[in-house]
């Protein structure tokens, strides 16, 4: 047994060394995210968070960002004690690489803080134009209102004297899309009927009645509003063409009876032929048991975009900002995403699609 | 020089070494297998991905071809061909055909945007066969484009795919393509040139990239500018500093155009990049583009990693099992061996009852059984040896005691033999002198004989005849006899020689000779004999001797039938002499008579005093007549003899009776009786006379004062 003793010691030392090696602490890449996980936008925030976490886990499983694990901290903007600003300061205290703000309300609220602190702020699922107006440190990864218009207009018949009713959420985003639609109709010799409604509106019967004589109705709002308007239109026996902004392309809309035949501006993620997105959809739905939507896709793609921007580069806000300043094209979940040099809006295309038979058919 | 250090390897250590060596070899084989698997997977992945890259490039090229076809289909449109034909006849300074330009814009820009919200062609330009711009989606500044490479290429070969270019007027990058438009008769009408937008290239590349699944795709021009990437990228940014580009250049010898794969580290992760050149892709072959397909090495090598994990687990199991088995084997081997060793040690310490209780049906069991058998025999041998040793020790002790005693005896013997005048010597089995005492040496020295030496024989010491006798005596002694002889030595001594065998452990090792001077004894014996056979007063034979000697002579006389006569002599009136003169005078008379008889008789005659004053004379070889004469002379001599007394000389007479042996049946006693009878007659007849027994024939029976019958 004489030789067995030193061998056993050697074996123990080896195991200890391996264990210690495995326990070696690597500085993580910290990301902070604030988004509504409760309230009316909870579903958006939940999907966004799940998308972020999916991509973070995916990258960490592969070894992390430049061999550094990503540490994501998600704070409910609706439940932060002390308010959103306090939550911001709390997450900033951890010195994250950047801050993710989910939805326009959160992003716009955090923008001045981030700009003041010279912290990178990314607004996901954030349509508000103010987010990136005169911004230095604030960016957006979501289509601008202008991207909705062409895809929505593809659903219009080629008639030139078309009357288009536009029911839109009365916010900057809604107004912007509505105006783009109306301008296009006007240029084609048609007529645009603009009907704004508030976020809290629940009865759209009057709106439906008002829009009853139009050739087409375009709805620019969140999915709940779109459904409500569609139901009201259906109740009013509206027979014209119906268009919806990208919120109308959520999976929850596909099975809605009122959504049948709805033309929507849809991101490419719902295209089963788009294999990259299809694989992510399968992974997400297996992980969460929920339908994959553009909010989750936004979260997934943002982390992947971040990984792609910083691979083999210094992981720092300065390095990232410099990378962003050069602009880029990116083939992500939403297809060809691009950021123009010096720009702050990372856009992805919206495609013309139609809800048919409980599914989205791209044109 | 110190002894070489010889480390001791126990069975367990050897087994551990062998096991570890085996496990190391096994581990090495496993490692080799895993490494081989890794390499095989890398190669397989690389080849597969290279093929995929080729397929992707082919798809992209196919898309380009499709767009070229799309351009070429312009010649199928009657209005286009008509206007082109007309344009070829226009003056050189004619402006662009706006109708045709609108047609181009609608067909190639707006329609795509209307349908898909995006554009494929950044620009489409129609040029006549003279090189003059006829129409364009965005009319170029220069109307004459006949010097352009794409124009010449398209006119010459029908199609041209140029490289990527930046159009400052369009502020757009794109792939320059051009096709020759021919009429129905195949006559060139001009060239349709287009700038396929960068966006379209990216979309097409992205579409093709879906073939590769979840991988990184990079499309790079011949001068290492990026056209597409699945990561965020800038169109036509230089990427020659990218690891995968440098590695690919190194792999292909710094020349573009090769399919292979390399492994690089990106973002701290090992990645495998397969790459393929566009040389076989339609429409793109001459452009020298390279498509890179990268995947996380761990994903690529996941099967190998799984294999490695399985092998590692299996190895760990085998390691543990091997160590366990080795431990068991070592235990199964070492423990019994140690037990045997310990038992052997205890046996060596003296506990011969140690045995190993191992009931095993293998070599160890055989060893244990053999050990026990050996131990039994050892014990038995030991006991036997111990007993023998004890016996031997006892024997040795006895021998020592014996030796001591022998030594003591020898000392005693030496003392004894040296203290005696007897001759004592010892010879060995060859009759060689071994030991002698000083008496022997002195005797020989006194006789002037040679010195006595160890090893000499009888032949060396004695004359030949004597030596032979002695040798015979030695022989007899050595054979176990104990002869005793008596010799008279040259100096007149009488010596007895007693021979005795010398024994040692039941074996005759020699002979001892003890020789005693019996001269005195013999003299004494003679004296005793003499005393026992002679009359102490007169010196004549006493009755016993006379009768004994008479018997001897009688038997001789009978044997040889020779005459023998017996005289009986009696002193006349002897009693009166004793009474008168005393016994002393009587004794003197007897002495004188005997002396006178002895003087007158022959040496062969025997005079014996039978008692008192009665004497007998045996006359062997003497017939009666001669005997009578002898008798008569004796009578006369004795009659004349006188003995001095205080009262003067005293004379006496004797009476004699004579008888002779008569026949073979006669006896001494009978003859003496007759002689005594004759003596009685002589006494009766007046004494001082001889009377002859009538058995003596031819002899006067009586003398005057002599014979009478």
Summarize the model shown.
Chain A has twelve helices and 15 strands. Chain A is α/β, with parallel strands linked by helices. In chain A, a hairpin with a 2-residue loop joins β14 and β15.
Describe this structure in words.
Chain B: Its EC number is 2.7.7.65. Chain B: This is diguanylate cyclase. The complex is a heterodimer of chains A (363) and B (709). Helices cover 42% and strands 21% of the residues of chain A. In chain A, strand 11 (328-332) and strand 12 form a beta hairpin. Chain A has 363 residues and is an alpha/beta fold. Chain A folds into two domains: 29-143 and 274-346, Rossmann fold (3-Layer(aba) Sandwich), CATH 3.40.50; 146-266, 3-Layer(aba) Sandwich (Rossmann fold), CATH 3.40.50.2300. The longest helix of chain A has 20 residues, at 42-61. Chain A contains twelve helices and 15 strands. The longest helix of chain B is centred in the N-terminal third of the chain and has 62 residues, at 11-72. In chain B, helix 1 runs antiparallel to helix 8 and helix 15 (574-581) crosses helix 16 (583-600). By secondary structure, chain B is α+β, with helices and mostly antiparallel strands. The two termini of chain B are 129 Å apart. Chain B has four domains: 45-300, Beta-Lactamase, CATH 3.30.450.20; 356-419; 423-437 and 455-521, Beta-Lactamase (2-Layer Sandwich), CATH 3.30.450; 535-708, Reverse transcriptase/Diguanylate cyclase domain (Alpha-Beta Plaits). Classes of the chains: A alpha/beta (363), B alpha+beta (709). Chains A and B meet through helix 10, helix 11, strand 11 and strand 12 of A and helix 1, helix 3 and helix 5 of B.
Average of pLDDT of chain A: 88
Can you tell me the residue ranges of chain A where pLDDT is under 50 for at least 5 consecutive residues? none
Radius of gyration of chain B: 82 Å
Residue share in helix of chain A: 40-55%
Strand composition percent of chain A:
15-25%
Instruction: Work out the number of β strands of chain A.
Output: 15
Secondary structural class of chain A: alpha/beta
CATH topology of the largest domain in chain A, which one? Answer: Rossmann fold
Strand residue content of chain B: 15-25%
**Widest β-sheet, arrangement of strands of chain A:** 7-6-8-9-10-14-15
Low-confidence stretches of chain B: 699-709
Total domain modules of chain A: 2
Number of helical elements of chain A:
12
């Amino acid at each position: 047994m004489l030789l067995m003793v030193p061998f056993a010691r050697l074996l123990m030392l080896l195991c200890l060394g391996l264990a210690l090696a495995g326990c070696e602490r690597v500085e993580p890449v910290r990301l902070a995210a604030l988004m509504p996980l409760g309230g009316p936008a909870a579903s958006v925030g939940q999907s966004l968070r799940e998308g972020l976490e999916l991509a973070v886990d995916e990258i960490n499983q592969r070894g992390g960002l430049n061999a550094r694990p990503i540490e994501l901290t998600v704070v409910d903007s609706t439940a932060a004690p002390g308010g959103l600003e306090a939550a911001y300061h709390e997450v900033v205290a951890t010195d994250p690489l950047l801050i993710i703000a989910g939805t326009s309300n959160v992003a716009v609220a955090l923008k001045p803080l981030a700009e003041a602190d010279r912290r990178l702020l990314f607004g996901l699922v954030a349509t508000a134009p103010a987010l990136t107006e005169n911004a230095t440190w604030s960016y957006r990864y979501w289509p601008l209102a202008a991207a909705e218009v062409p895809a929505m207009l593809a659903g219009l018949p080629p008639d030139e004297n078309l009357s288009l009713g536009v029911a839109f959420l009365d916010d900057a985003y809604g107004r912007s899309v509505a105006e783009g639609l109306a301008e296009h109709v006007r240029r084609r010799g048609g007529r645009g009927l603009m009907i704004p409604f508030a976020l809290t509106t629940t009865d759209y019967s009057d709106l439906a009645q008002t829009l009853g004589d139009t050739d087409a109705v375009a709805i620019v709002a969140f999915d709940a509003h779109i459904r409500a308007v569609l139901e009201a239109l259906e109740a009013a026996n509206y027979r014209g063409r119906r268009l919806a902004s990208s919120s109308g392309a959520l999976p929850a809309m596909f099975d809605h009876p009122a959504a049948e035949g709805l033309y929507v501006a849809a991101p490419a993620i719902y295209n089963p032929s788009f294999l990259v997105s299809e694989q992510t959809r399968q992974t997400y739905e297996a992980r969460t048991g929920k339908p994959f939507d553009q909010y989750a896709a936004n979260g997934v793609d943002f982390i992947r975009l971040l990984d792609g921007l910083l691979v083999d580069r210094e992981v720092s806000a300065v390095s990232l900002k410099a990378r962003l300043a050069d602009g880029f094209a990116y083939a992500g979940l939403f297809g060809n995403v691009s950021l123009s040099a010096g720009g702050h809006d990372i856009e992805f295309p919206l495609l013309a699609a139609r809800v048919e038979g409980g599914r989205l058919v791209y044109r | 020089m110190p002894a070489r250090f010889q480390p001791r390897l126990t069975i367990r250590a050897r087994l551990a070494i062998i096991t570890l060596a085996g496990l190391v070899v096994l581990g090495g084989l496993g490692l080799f297998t895993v490494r081989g698997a890794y390499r095989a997977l890398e190669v397989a992945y690389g080849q597969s991905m290279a093929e995929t890259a080729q397929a992707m490039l082919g798809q992209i090229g196919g898309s380009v071809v499709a767009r070229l076809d799309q351009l070429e289909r312009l010649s199928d449109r009657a209005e286009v061909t008509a206007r082109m034909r007309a344009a070829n006849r226009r003056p050189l300074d004619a402006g662009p055909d706006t109708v045709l330009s609108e047609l181009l814009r609608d067909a190639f820009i707006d329609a795509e945007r209307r349908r898909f919200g995006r554009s494929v062609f950044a620009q489409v330009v129609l040029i006549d066969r003279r090189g003059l711009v006829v129409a364009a989606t965005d009319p170029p500044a220069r109307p004459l484009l006949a010097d352009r490479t794409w124009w010449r290429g398209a006119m010459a070969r029908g199609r041209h795919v140029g490289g990527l270019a930046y159009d400052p007027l369009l502020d757009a990058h794109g792939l320059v393509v051009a096709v020759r438009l021919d009429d129905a008769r195949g006559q060139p009408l001009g060239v349709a040139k287009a700038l396929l937008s960068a966006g379209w290239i990216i979309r097409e590349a992205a579409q093709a990239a879906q073939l590769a699944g979840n991988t990184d795709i990079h499309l790079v021009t011949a001068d290492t500018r990026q056209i597409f990437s699945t990561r965020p990228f800038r169109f036509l940014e230089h990427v020659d500093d990218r690891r995968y580009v440098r590695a690919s250049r190194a792999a292909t010898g710094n020349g573009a155009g090769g399919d292979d794969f390399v492994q690089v580290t990106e973002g701290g992760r090992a990645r495998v990049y397969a790459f393929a050149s566009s040389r076989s892709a339609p429409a793109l072959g001459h452009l020298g583009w390279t498509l890179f397909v990268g995947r996380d090495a761990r994903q690529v090598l996941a099967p190998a990693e799984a294999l490695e994990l399985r092998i590692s687990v299996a190895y760990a199991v085998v390691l543990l099992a091997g160590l366990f088995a080795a431990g068991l084997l070592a235990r199964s081997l070492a423990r019994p061996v140690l037990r045997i060793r310990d038992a052997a040690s205890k046996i060596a310490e003296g506990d011969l009852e140690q045995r190993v209780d191992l009931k095993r049906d293998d070599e160890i069991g055989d060893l244990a059984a053999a050990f026990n058998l050996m131990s039994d025999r050892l014990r038995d041998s030991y006991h036997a040896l111990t007993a023998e040793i004890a016996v031997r020790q006892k024997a040795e002790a006895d021998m020592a005691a014996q030796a001591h005693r022998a030594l003591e005896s020898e000392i005693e013997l030496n003392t004894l033999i040296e203290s005696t005048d007897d001759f004592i010597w010892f010879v060995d089995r060859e009759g060689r002198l071994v030991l002698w005492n000083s008496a022997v040496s002195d005797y020989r020295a006194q006789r002037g004989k040679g010195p006595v030496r160890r090893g000499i024989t009888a032949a060396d010491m004695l004359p030949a005849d004597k030596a032979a006798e002695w040798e015979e005596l030695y022989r007899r002694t050595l054979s176990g006899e104990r002869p005793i002889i008596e010799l008279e030595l040259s100096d007149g001594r009488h010596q007895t020689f007693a021979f005795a065998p010398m024994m040692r452990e039941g074996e005759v090792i020699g002979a001892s000779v003890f020789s005693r001077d019996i001269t005195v004894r013999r003299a004494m014996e003679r004296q005793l004999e003499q005393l026992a056979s002679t009359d102490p007063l007169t010196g004549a034979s006493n009755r016993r001797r006379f009768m004994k000697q008479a018997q001897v002579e009688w038997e001789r006389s009978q044997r040889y039938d020779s005459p023998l006569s017996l005289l009986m002599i009696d002193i006349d009136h002897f009693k009166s002499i004793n009474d008168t003169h005393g016994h002393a005078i009587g004794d003197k008379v007897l002495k004188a008579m005997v002396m006178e008889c002895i003087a007158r008789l022959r040496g062969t005659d025997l005079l014996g005093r039978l008692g008192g004053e009665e004497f007998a004379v045996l006359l062997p070889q003497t017939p009666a007549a001669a005997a009578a004469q002898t008798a008569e002379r004796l009578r006369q001599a004795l009659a004349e003899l006188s003995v001095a007394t205080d009262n003067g000389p005293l004379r006496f007479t004797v009476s004699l009776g004579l008888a002779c042996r008569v026949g073979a049946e006669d006896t001494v006693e009978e003859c003496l009786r007759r002689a005594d009878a004759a003596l009685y007659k002589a006494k009766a007849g007046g004494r001082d006379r001889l009377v002859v027994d009538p058995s003596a024939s031819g002899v006067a029976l009586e003398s005057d004062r002599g014979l009478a019958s």
